[in-house]
Amino acid sequence: MKLVTLFIALIFVSIVAANTCGGNCPSNDCTSSCPCGTSKNDVSISEYCSRYSDWSQSCCECIAQHESGGNANAANYNTNGSYDVGLYQINDVNWDQCNGGKAPCNPSDNTKCAHMVWGWGGNTWKLWSTCGACGCCSSH
Fold it and tell me: How much is the pTM?
């Protein structure tokens, strides 16, 4: 009986770990796929925001903080079946155009993609759902 209980507990733990991608998918809704792996990669948001001078540093930092908390390996599985990944939670519909079709998990690649998405939004943050919380929807 103890062996069966242990086996069931191990299965449960492995299912939970897969759904959270080792903590990279805090919403617990990721499928068995973890696009950016299962280990966290906390980075300095301000370092990556400062790579571009044409966008608001404060808005950039607020958006990234709200999107990923600074975890470059953050992932979110959306109800429409798409994934958001990285510092700025870049949606997979953008991966072809900004990163050759690969998940932009590397924070440099993710920042490059974010800058492109920012540009596609008219040099504003309006394409991020967190722009309202940051007061940055129409800001450069």
Answer: 0.85
